Write the structure tokens for this entry.
Amino acid sequence: MSNKAEIILEKLIFASRWIQAPLYAGLIIGGVLYAYKFTVELIHLCMHIHTITESALMLGVLTLVDITMVANLLIMVIIGGYSTFVSKMNIESHEDRPDWLKKVDAGTLKVKLAGSLVGVSGIHLLQTFINIENQNMEHVKWQVIIHVVFLASSIMLAYTEKILHEKH
């Protein structure tokens, strides 16, 4: 009797992974919102191109890059997370299947996400430096510290994954 209860419990635990599916659907909606924000920013830049300064244009373009990098991060989390933690995706024969998806596992996904966070942090830092005269230096200091922490964490995650994969 306890064996049957154990089988039912294991099936329930395994099925619980589907609780994450609505979370990934929510992230897709977040991606749509970012696409909207990108479009609004692009239209704004296009409409004011004759009146904005070069640094304002650069800040606007960096905002577009930042939005794109966050959208890339969302896609990695949605596709990589869903296929790693919820269910295999039947896209092996799809011509647009991303190459990185072939090698994705939980560790690789963490390293890719950490690298993306470093990229997003770097863009924010670059935006701050371009507009440094209007920045609070305490704020700038903390931004640099946070960026360095992200960078160090990414390096440590990548190194840990390298060590773990060398043993296999």
Remarks:
- The first helix runs from residue 2 to 15.
- The helical segments are 2-15, 21-47, 54-86, 106-130, 137-166.
